Amino acid sequence: MSDEITDQQRLLNEAIALAAEVHVGQVRKQPDGRPYICHVLDVVNALPERLHELRLVAALHDTIEDIEPERREWLRDRIRTQFGPYVLGGVEAMSHLKKSQELTTEGDLLLEYEEYIKTSVVHDIYARTVKVVDNYVNMKDHVTKFIDGNPEEREKSRAKLNQYASSIATLTEPTFP
């Protein structure tokens, strides 16, 4: 067995390293406060190895929304140069840059999230596929929180589970191209 890696494995390692750089110091709120890169790896590893470009998008899927706004253009250029325009397109389509900080109710947040799914994610085949997997991973985390949480946490997790299920239903509709 050779210790050499393929070009695809090298690119995936580079995408994961870039994601780790962007997400350094960030932790996952649900369910256990683990480093954020663990979520990224969960999404990557839920995709078959043969879907190389989708795995690149998965590795980078939250980078643009989680990097400082003044570094976003640098990151976009790096993704385009290093991984190509289709990967950048998928990452861009998955980037959920909230339009308003004034959304406070769960209903408002849900409507805003549904709009993001329908106007951005569904129109990019890479983003659609990776977002289904991302929502699946998010649902697993919220199921854990729902089972283990206090009544207030359980209600928040229930609402999030419904949001992700609704998103998956939208993303898997055969009516979208």
Instruction: Please trace the helix and strand order, writing H or E for each element.
Output: HHHHHHHHH
If classified by CATH, what would the architecture be?
Orthogonal Bundle
Number of helices: 9
What proportion of the residues is helical, as a percent range? 55-70%
Beta-strand percent range: under 5%
Broad shape = globular
Topology-level CATH name:
Hypothetical protein af1432
The CATH homologous superfamily is called: Hypothetical protein af1432
CATH class category name? Mainly Alpha
Low-confidence stretches: none
What is the domain tally?
A: 1
Task: Give the terminus-to-terminus CA distance.
Answer: 42 Å
Alpha carbon gyration radius: 16 Å
Secondary structure elements and their pairing?
Layout: H1 7-23, H2 36-45, H3 52-60, H4 63-66, H5 72-83, H6 85-94, H7 106-119, H8 125-148, H9 151-171
Fold and architecture overview:
The protein is an all-alpha fold and 177 residues long. 68% of the residues lie in helices and 0% in strands. The chain has a single domain (7-171), classed as Hypothetical protein af1432, CATH 1.10.3210. It has helices at 7-23, 36-45, 52-60, 63-66, 72-83, 85-94, 106-119, 125-148, 151-171. Helix 5 (72-83) packs across helix 6 (85-94) and helix 7 (106-119) packs parallel to helix 9 (151-171). The protein is globular, with a radius of gyration of 16 Å. The relative contact order is 0.12. The mean pLDDT is 90.
Question: Brief description of this entry?
Answer:
The chain has 177 residues and is mainly α.
